[in-house]
Amino acid sequence: MHEMGIACSVIEAVQKEMERYPRKRVVKVGLRIGALAGVDAESLRFCFEAITKGSSPARRGLPLELDIELCASDELEMAHLELEDEEEAA
């Protein structure tokens, strides 16, 4: 199931991007998935939730929401990250 690999890659990309924002935490990650990309959105969501249920350094145990936007192309890309200040989540 390549959706698990995609979910792992998304988490790695989020963690790498978060290095640029040391006083922020990510709340939501948005993906754009094309109908021709060969990705099952619900399987990807399941895999993503399974990975993010545990504690991670970037999230400090907080849930990370996945926002999936379906489109007609063949793209698969990270569309956006929603961040909040460290103090807001406490």
Helix content: 25-40%
Q: How many β-strands, per DSSP?
A: 3
Q: What is the highest CATH level, the class?
A: Alpha Beta
Q: What's the structural domain tally?
A: 1
Please write the string of helix (H) and strand (E) elements.
HEHEEH
Strand order of the main beta sheet, please?
2-1-3
Calculate the terminal CA-CA distance, rounded to whole Å.
36 Å
Number of helices: 3
Q: Percent of residues in beta strands?
A: 25-35%
Q: What structural category do the secondary elements indicate?
A: alpha+beta
**Uncertain residue segments:** none
Rg from alpha-carbon coordinates: 13 Å
The CATH topology is hypothetical protein PF0899 fold
Indicate the mean pLDDT: 87
Give the biggest beta sheet. 3 strands, mixed
Secondary-structure topology with pairs:
Blueprint: H1 2-18, E1 24-34, H2 41-52, E2 65-71, E3 76-85, H3 86-89
Parallel strand pairs: 1-2
Antiparallel strand pairs: 1-3
Helix pairs in contact: 1-2
Structure description:
- There is one protein chain.
- The radius of gyration is 13 Å and the shape is globular.
- The longest helix has 17 residues, at 2-18.
- It is 37% helix and 31% strand.
- It has a three-stranded mixed beta sheet.
- The chain has 90 residues and is of the alpha+beta class.
- The protein has one domain (2-89): hypothetical protein PF0899 fold (2-Layer Sandwich).
